Amino acid sequence: MIVKTTKDWPTQESDIIVDRYVNQPRPIRVAVLGAGISGIAFAYKARGLETVSFTIFEKNHDVGGTWLESRYPGVSCDVPAHCYTYTWAGNPDWTRVYASGQEINEYYRSLAREYGVYENTKFRHKIVGAEWSADEAAWRLSVEDLATGDKHVHVAEIFINSGGVLNNWAWPNIPGLHDFQGSLVHTARWDETLDLTGKRIAVIGSGASALQVVPTLQSSVSSLVSFHRSPAWVAAEFAGQFASKGRDTEYTEEERRRFRDDPEYHARYRREVEHGMNARFPSFFRLSDAQTIGVQNVTKSMRARLGNDPVLCEKLIPKFPLGCRRVTPGHGYLEALTKSNVTVETAPIARVTGHGIETVDGTMYEVDAIITATGYVTDFVPRFPIIGLGGVNLQDVWRDQGARAYMSVAAPSMPNYFMTTGPNSPISNGSLIPAIERQIDFALAFIRKIQVQDLQHVVVTDEATDDFNTWKDEFMKGMTWSGSCNSWYKNGTTDGTIIGPWPGSVNHFLQSLKEPRFEDFSYKYNSRNRFRFLGNGLAENEIKGWPLGEYIK
Q: What's this protein's family per the entry (predicted)?
């Protein structure tokens, strides 16, 4: 028998008895900020949810996020390409062990086309404000059309912030920087028409982009001055056992064909590379043997690559623990710093003039171009007001008190609000993409709960957030990230609270978020009775005429 409505059975009229089968999902609208790796993954995973519509807002003209924006010379991923794919979408056709930025971007663009991202994304649209409306039980997002300057309001029950932490670049705060009369460029906004051949150039910074730009440009410029505020551990390639020729290792056509023709072999290879990436984690424990051995090995390697030059070794080999700042493979970087046309300068910059850079000791470097490889604003403070319950503005709270999230995915007073790569995500703990997938799964679990249990909103409690951060801060005392170094992990401080990495390994993170702790959240229902979701006393199979005994195994 198919029961179509409550008219087929007698009941009293009541505001808590509704004509829905138990766990019937209600329509939900989701707004997603960003069409990068996280946004594309959400589009894929959302296909498994009933009656969910979503809109992605992307400030750029295309998908890809950081990999669309990063176009500086030599840009590539220092993580093996086979670790930089979704777990469900291995790519047998990577041409190199460490793929170029262009190849990575094309991989994600192809998946975006397959997953319907383009059809569900508003490109050149930027979210400039978000406010929770109690009356509508939804987020009201102020969205700016960057092509016209017009603004409109978009309403959605769920807001997922997938903007990431590596998308808000900024010029360094150096007096006179914009008085410079030569070419001034940031690695995050590279001018592809810029020709530096035979020029005198300065590179400010010693992070990942500097380590790629310097060796790429060194041989073609007249002179290069590399300005270092602090040293960095420059190690061998991540999972380098899979790259016999280092950063330049390419996959042969025969290898790629085997990946394509033998999916199980390809999957086994990917698992081995993932193991290699994640096996580095024990070295992040400050007192571990792995840390001691790692320091010895990387120090020895850096000395050799610097030609055992005592001046360069003193300037460039850190005194702080391995991993205090991000350990970065630098193919050809240290070798480039030993060349005769390169000067390594560690004195702080005093100012920039119209023609060059002056350090605090009075040394003047006249240059034709300045490249700032100084990264991004990484304080996790939202770039626009996000106003939740009781008028609490997350932007103000995190700006004043520092970023404090619940397990990287949620924030107090922010109902139906979830994040990917939020504070204390495993951004330096091992393989990142599976962690992003787990964060999306976490959000989807709550979306499903809101849909089927007649919930108006869910919000993580202050108590749970405080408890997590108390545990996290105590745990971090034993990690190398708490060492005495200036790091974006600590919001650019030497001894601040660690807001960058997760307090544990990637596998630890995956297990920690595998089953959401629903008890850490408070709930508001759409009616006076939390059991209204039980509906009309029937199940979906009874309403839809499906077999009624399928629970028998």
A: Belongs to the FAD-binding monooxygenase family.
What is the reported pTM? 0.95
CATH architecture of the domain 25-63+117-166+379-530 equals: 3-Layer(bba) Sandwich (3.50)
Count Cα neighbours of 279 within 13 Å in the Cβ-side half-sphere.
Answer: 10
Q: Spell out the residues 6+ positions from residue 288 whose beta carbon is closer than 8 angstroms to its own.
A: 282
Cα distances (Å, whole numbers) of residue 381 to 45, 97, 161: 27, 34, 12
Q: Are 79 and 67 in contact (CB under 8 A)?
A: no
State the span(s) of the chain assigned CATH 3.50.50.60: 25-63+117-166+379-530, 177-238+280-372
- Rounded to whole angstroms, the Cα distance separating 323 from 136 reads 47
- Is CATH 3.30.70.330 correct for 177-238+280-372? no
Q: What is the pLDDT of residues 132-148, one digit of tens each?
A: 999 999 999 999 999 99
User: Which tokens sit at 274?
Assistant: 């993932």
**pLDDT, tens only, 20-56:** 999 999 999 999 999 999 999 999 999 989 999 999 9
Q: What gap in Å lies between CA 553 and CA 551, rounded to an integer?
A: 6
Q: Which residues of 237-248 are buried (b: 16+ CB within 10 A; e: fewer)?
A: bbbbebbeeebe
The alpha carbon dihedral of 124, 130, 132, 135 has a sign of negative
